[in-house]
Amino acid sequence: MSADRLNRITARLESEGGEVGKPARLCRVAKEIIRVDGAGVMLMSGAVPQGSLCSSNNVSNLLEELQYTLGEGPCVDAYQQDRVVLEPDLANPVTPRWFAFTPRALEAGVGSVFGFPLRSGTARLGALNLYMDRPGSLSDDQHADATLMADVITDQVLNGQADAVQGMAAGDLELSSNFQFVVHNAAGMVSVQLGVSVTDALIRLRARAFSDNRLVREVAEDVVARRLSFL
Amino acid sequence: MEKSRDHAIVRSLVEMADNLVDNFDVVDLLTGLTDRCVRVLGVSAAGVMLAQESAELRLVASSSETMQVVELFELQADEGPCLEAFRTGERVSHENLRSGSGRWPRFSVIALEAGFKSVFALPLRLRERTIGALNLFSIEEDPMDERDVMVARGFADLATISVLQHGAAAEAQRVSEQLTHALTSRIVIEQAKGVVSERARIDMTQAFDRLRSFARSHHLRLTDVAQSAIDGTLDPSVWVPTSPAPD
Q1: A45/A182 Cα distance (integer angstroms)
Q2: Radius of gyration for chain A, computed over Cα atoms and rounded to the nearest angstrom
Q3: Engineering a disulfide at B24: which of A40, A71, A118, B19 sits with its beta carbon 3.0 to 4.6 angstroms away?
Q4: CB distance A169–B179 less than 8 Å?
Q5: What pLDDT does residue B247 have?
Q6: What is B175-238's CATH number, 1.10.10, 1.10.3210, 1.20.140, 1.10.760?
């Protein structure tokens, strides 16, 4: 029953004492409860990824960075289309998609990926990012746990933000999340170097990341460190 | 007769449940509820009072706009079956209002003048939370029969859940917009740091200091200064050093 499931999740979150809503804990518990190989939370707004709240391991983190760089993937679809996105066999998908994301994810050792949207009422925050290192579907139990976990994470993020100082992101959120500010720093620099808008500069940074087969964050770090110039 | 009333009840419940799913207006929903109470339960008038943040009961919807009925409700912020139902979280019924006495001296005078002989109130309650009350008036003296009470409870529960859901959804929307806004403002500042850093050939920390000093000395908001840096309308003094470094 749904109430038992929720109680189990809540009990697990509270069992360690301290703050329940700490992002790192939310991701770790998500991975353990849903029994996947990795879980992460992507935050999105204005139709695009904005960053990552947490990731339970490096591969999860990479999957989020890839989606941030490439603007495509299971979490992007889950958020933009407001639905659960399941890809049980990334190497042999029934419907091929995510042509830039897929090879890079496979290379990282991912076999299956799933995206569960984070939403509350009409508010949409992003998506829960899950993967397994071999192909396979989520069982009904895993699916139900993931759906509930997405709700719990959404509530925690919103509750945290509700207590925040007006006009600012909640302290925890800011501390734990990676909103890719370095990419925005670099976009400012590149907009001056190329004489284009910041929006165009972001596109140019991503295009460079794609053609160099790197993450946009890595390209941005080089720009900010002045190892790379667009002049 | 029974069948057509049952049919009306079921239809009412389905219509109200539909409203839960679509975008709906709380006042519309509650007004519909009061109309249904009159039609299906055969009472003379119905009204819904809600206690919002101030925790004072306010009339939100009523089956009748006549001044008398409205006044009857407004009174109830201080005294009457609605207030009692709201405070106790239990149903309240009184079939024989006696003018100027009993539990609600002032209320009963007005009610009787309006032609009502009996009143019934149900709390709008979900487990431990009572958010208001549903009030029914009748010109008859007969008490509500249990079947009618059950139907009224069904309507009241549906109304309660709708209001709470809507409130929660509106709050989630508000908070998520706040988060988006905070993030956007921060992003603008980070982008502006990049612009100033490149123009002045300084690092990000120094670029931030320049933006902040400029904002302060010109009594401007940091986000506005940052936006103008991105738009290309920022005073170039921000990236030109103000005094030469000493040798």
Answers
A1: 18
A2: 18
A3: B19
A4: yes
A5: 46
A6: 1.10.10
Contact A123, A101 (CB under 8 A): no
Cβ contact A191–B199 (<8 Å): no
Write the residue in A123, A173, A185 that is nearest to B172 by C-beta. A123
pLDDT(A187) > 70: yes
| CATH of the domain spanning B2-168 | 3.30.450.40
Q: Nearest C-alpha of chain A: how many angstroms from B164?
A: 12
Q: Does B27 touch chain A (CB under 8 A)?
A: no
CB proximity A158 to B under 8 Å: yes
Number of H helices, E strands in chain B: 8, 5
> Residues A89-139: pLDDT tens digits?
999 999 999 999 999 999 999 999 999 999 998 899 999 999 999 999 999
| Domain positions in chain B | 2-168, 175-238
Task: Enumerate residue ranges in chain B where pLDDT < 50.
Answer: 247
Neighbours of A193 (CB within 10 A): 17
Q: With contacts defined as CB-CB under 8 Å, which chain A residues touch B173? A: 121-123
Does residue B43 contact residue B138 with C-beta atoms inside 8 Å? yes
Q: Is the pLDDT of residue A171 over 80?
A: no
pTM: 0.78
Given an 8 Å threshold on Cβ–Cβ distance, is B197 in contact with A188?
yes
